[in-house]
Design goal:
The complex is a heterodimer of chains A (113) and B (113).
Chain A lengths: L3 E4 L2 E4 L5 E7 L5 E8 L3 E10 L2 E4 L6 E3 L9 E3 L8 E8 L8 E2 L3 E5 L1
Parallel strand pairs in A: 2-11
Antiparallel strand pairs in A: 1-3, 3-8, 4-5, 4-9, 5-6, 7-8, 9-10, 9-11
Chain B lengths: L2 E4 L4 E4 L4 E3 L1 E4 L5 E7 L5 E7 L5 E4 L2 E4 L9 E3 L8 E9 L2 E7 L3 E6 L1
Parallel strand pairs in B: 2-12
Antiparallel strand pairs in B: 1-4, 3-9, 5-6, 5-10, 7-8, 8-9, 10-11, 10-12
Classes of the chains: A mainly beta (113), B mainly beta (113).
């Protein structure tokens, strides 16, 4: 199993550009989430989904958009990149039953200049 | 709301030393508690978990006990190795929001030979 796959691993954007961070999982997990990791801040939830067609906002949703058209894919869109969005982004997924931990992807390091 | 507080690092130890990383939490209901580990340049991996009071999670020589009376989930290891050098995150998921993880800010551990 590939687990959770994120692409790209690295990206540099100019202020105002848009892009999509891709996330795919092959474990048939219902729950998927996007987090950003910043020094001294831990991980903060951006958006999450509890199933195909269902998404909701986390702690820091501004400037980001998501959709969940299939169980496997959960892309994160930056609408108009800003330097404050420079961060490492992690996608994660888990089953909807029990208390299993999330499985994380390897991350996308984004720099906005 | 939910929150996780863990000891600030960095923590520097010599090989074979005893490790404790403190973690306390506030949560509604009865949370599930997790420790994640992030090795340099990688995503987060679930290290151990506990889902109810007095449960002990263990993995790779690490242990943590869910203490409801003190709302704590401290991570311990009796003899650390250089390969344990990483960032450690305490996290919880709780009740009606069990699809969301709330993270502490992380503790950087460096183990010297």
């Amino acid at each position: 199993n590939a687990g959770v796959t994120q692409t790209p691993k690295f990206q540099v954007l100019k202020t105002g550009q848009s892009m999509t961070l891709q996330c795919a999982q092959d474990m048939n997990h219902e729950y998927m989430s996007w987090y950003r990791q910043d020094p001294g801040m831990g991980l903060r939830l951006i958006h999450y989904s509890v199933g195909a067609g269902i998404t909701d906002q986390g702690e820091v949703p501004n400037g980001y958009n998501v959709s969940r058209s299939t169980t496997e894919d959960f892309p994160l869109r930056l609408l108009s990149a800003a330097p404050s969005q420079t961060s490492v982004y992690f996608c994660a997924s888990r089953e909807n039953r029990g208390s299993h931990g999330y499985t994380f992807g390897s991350g996308t390091r984004l720099t906005v200049v | 709301g939910n929150s996780v507080t863990q000891m600030e690092g960095p923590v520097t130890l010599s090989e074979e030393a005893f490790l404790t990383i403190n973690c306390t939490y506030t949560a509604t209901g009865y949370p599930s508690l997790f420790w994640y580990v992030q090795y340099p340049g990688e995503g987060l991996q679930l290290l151990l978990k506990a889902t109810k009071a007095d449960d002990k999670g263990s993995n790779k020589g690490f242990e943590a006990t869910y203490r409801k009376e003190t709302t704590s989930f401290h991570l311990e290891k009796g003899s650390v190795q250089v390969s344990d050098s990483a960032v450690y995150f305490c996290a919880l998921s709780s009740g009606g929001s069990n699809y969301k993880l709330t993270f502490g800010k992380g503790t950087l551990l460096t183990v010297n030979p």
